[in-house]
């Protein structure tokens, strides 16, 4: 199977996730700037989550440029990733509506951690399917950035129970670290 259908399906799921984010946002009741204070936490979590979906969509797109074929295991690994990403609207809303309370911030981190784990698994399945000498195989030889991210997400989840704002800052820093598309794929495609 080619990657076209998998890409189109994944693009659709990510577009729906972003749509859910927007539909979950409340409209302020007042017409003054002060009325925005009530929805500001929800808006800030929306922005962060939108960036995360954008990061996954962008890296997902780059990955499939280097992949030539898809197996059943790759399809299931991709669905695993989409499952965790689909939980972001719930975790985003809960964290924002509860003004960055400990448990919602920890849950948000768990969802980000599991999406990172799912991304790692997807990469491993793709490499196994394509071969270690393939473009993607060479690009993913050492996936230190994903492994380090998983460790940092785990740490941020633990910190959330004591300092949830610190965990939020860690989530923002990790988003910044992944904001630029994965250069490993670009380099592999150039060769």
UniProtKB/TrEMBL annotation:
It is found in: Membrane. This is DUF1211 domain-containing protein. InterPro entries: TMEM175-like (IPR010617). GO terms for molecular function: potassium channel activity; proton channel activity. Its main location: membrane. Keywords: Ion channel, Ion transport, Membrane, Potassium, Potassium channel, Potassium transport, Transmembrane, Transmembrane helix, Transport. Pfam families: TMEM175. It comes from Roseivirga seohaensis subsp. aquiponti.
């Amino acid at each position: 199977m080619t990657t076209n259908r998998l890409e189109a399906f994944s693009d659709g799921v990510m577009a729906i996730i972003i749509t859910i984010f927007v539909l979950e946002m409340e409209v302020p009741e007042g017409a003054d700037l002060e009325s925005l204070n009530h929805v500001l936490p929800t808006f800030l979590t929306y922005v962060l989550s939108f960036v995360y979906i954008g990061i996954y969509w962008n890296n997902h797109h780059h990955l499939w440029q280097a992949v030539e074929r898809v197996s059943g295991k790759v399809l299931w690994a991709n669905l695993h990733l989409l499952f965790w990403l689909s939980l972001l609207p719930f975790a985003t809303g809960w964290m924002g509506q509860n003004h960055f309370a400990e448990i919602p911030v920890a849950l948000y981190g768990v969802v980000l951690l599991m999406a990172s784990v799912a991304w790692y698994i997807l990469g491993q399945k793709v490499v196994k399917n394509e071969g270690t000498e393939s473009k993607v195989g060479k690009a993913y030889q050492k996936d230190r950035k994903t492994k380090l991210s998983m460790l940092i997400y785990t740490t941020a989840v633990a910190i959330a129970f004591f300092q949830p704002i610190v965990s939020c800052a860690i989530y923002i820093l990790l988003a910044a670290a992944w904001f630029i598309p994965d250069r490993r794929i670009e380099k592999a495609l150039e060769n």
